[in-house]
Amino acid sequence: MIVQVRVDDRLIHGQVALVWTKELNASAILVANDGAAKNEVAQMTMKMAIPSGKKLLIRSIKDSINILTDPRGKNMRIFVITNCVKDAYEIAKNVSQVEQVNVANAGRFDQTDKSKIVRFNSAIALNPEEITKLKELDKLPDVDVFSQGLPTSEKVSIPQLIKGKA
Q: For residues 88 and 6, what is the distance between their CA atoms, to the nearest angstrom?
């Protein structure tokens, strides 16, 4: 079972590893990111941030989709983290068990021309391609898409987030 797909451009950090993993009661974290899947230094760093007793997988988007559609994982509580909306969309589009996507921290390190970036709040700044994918993601049936930085923060729906911005 996928407890949440989170878009967080930092991938794993203290808030994700400790607060969200506990809040979601996740037994495993899957970092779905093509770059991290090829970067041994990034993998070592992420492994150090994971609480003991939690399983960590770092895979490409394609391999992540294969893992998430494998029936052997249906009884695990998997927390999926990716660093961009485009990848979250690919996962949600191809994996039927995705019930929620939290677009929490996205686009802040995007190298797109700054004049083309739309800043939605202090944690989300997206380029035109990511905005398009965010709208497509929000249209997927049976997937609750929202933005929530911390479990104690208010959930903001995607229409509320983009209202007047895009």
A: 8
pTM confidence score: 0.93
What is the full DSSP assignment across 48-83? HHSPTT-EEEEE-HHHHHHHHT-GGGTTS-EEEEES
Q: What is the distance between the alpha carbons of residues 95 and 25, in angstroms, rounded to a whole number?
A: 20
Starting at the edge strand found earlier in the chain, the sheet holding 55-59 runs: 55-59, 28-32, 78-82, 2-8, 100-105, 144-147, 156-157
Which residues have C-beta within 8 Å of that of residue 87, sequence separation ≥ 6?
A: 7, 32, 33, 34, 61
Token digits for 111?
């190298």
Catalytic residue positions, numbered: 13
Q: How many residues does the chain have?
A: 166
Report how far residue 112's alpha carbon sits from residue 126's, in angstroms, rounded to the nearest whole number: 9
Percent of the chain with pLDDT over 70: 98
How confident is the model at residue 166, as a pLDDT?
42
For 35, the token pair is: 């770059």
